[in-house]
Amino acid sequence: MEDQKHGKTDVPIQVILEELASKIDYSHPSKFNINRSNVLDGAFRGFRRKTYDPKNCISVRFSDDRGMNEEAVDLGGPRREFLRLLLESLARSRMFEGVDGHLNLALDCTAVREDQYFLAGRAISVCLVHGGPPPCFLSRTLFEAIAEDPQQCRPVLNDVVDCDLRQKIEQISESKTLSELQSAIEPMIDYLANAGCLHSIELTAKDQLVADILHFQVIQRVQGPFERFREGLRTLGVLQKLQMNPESFSGVLCHSKSDLTSEVMDRLFSVKLSTPGSNRMATESNVVAFWRDFLQDAEEESGESPTLHDILQFATGSNEVPPIGFSPQPSIEFLHEGGKYPIANTCVNCLRLPIHTNYDSFREAMDFGIRNTQGFGMA
Q1: What's the CA angle centered on 125, arms 120 and 126, to 5 degrees?
Q2: pTM for the predicted model, two decimal places
Q3: What's the Rg (C-alpha) of the chain?
Q4: Which of 143, 252, 306, 340 has a C-alpha 20 to 30 A away from that of 160?
Q5: Contact 160, 210 (CB under 8 A)
């Protein structure tokens, strides 16, 4: 329902992204040449190309560490893998800082000079609309600054990465007397002058001083990068939709617990069984039971065995269900003609399961196949 006061709506994220994705032109691909050891560099080269248009579909060619082209035609799988790796690389880049899953913008002169903050915002927009996984690494503070007025957002102490600075701010916040406050402020005189926070020292103004310091450190200090980052998010109309539907976007941009479970995985994959009553179907039904046990074990156990995210990544190229959903729907087929290990065709989201007569051998084959395959293809 629309909030008449704020002009905001409550539309499911998948509906929003499907609307934006309806404008993608699949007849004119934008090509990306990517090496997994330096995904961000390859992505930024592609975004900077004069012929690049975010409305064009994405075509990705990976190269291995020796520079040899992998034999793959991008019908979806390489694109999803590229977008997953791109988001992972962004979160690890020098443009962001903070605790995993709760990142704010960092100030990096090279990124400013090369306009990488704009490209980072564009990368997130492209990922969402072109079927990539959810970023889920922005802090609530950064998200609120993007969705609302950055001058009105209120950073918290945990947004400050510098441990020494955070400790000094804590000392100001915990001051009980004017003398304690003056002692806490003394080591920060130069910083406060630079931040424009050198007010008359009064105990009653302590909380406002702390708020001003936090706002300067987290928001004002990176105002230039923030504006470019937000400008990048305008790509494909994402920023406008985000500001109209902040609650819909918060779950995919900010950290949230993954809802991937064995039940979700079981429902996600359609099983293509042989003719009812045939010997093949009887064999397949047995393997389906093994498959469901395998999913349950992946959910309940920890260790060296593949996780549910590993299994999904092996089958589709994405380790999370994209906010826009999968197209086509992931499916399961069976390797009746031999083959001990699973095979994945990520271009069409098809996982082909090996035929085994007992669960232990099935699980062993699945564990080995999934753990020993990089990217798309055959185990």
Answers
A1: 95
A2: 0.88
A3: 25
A4: 252
A5: no
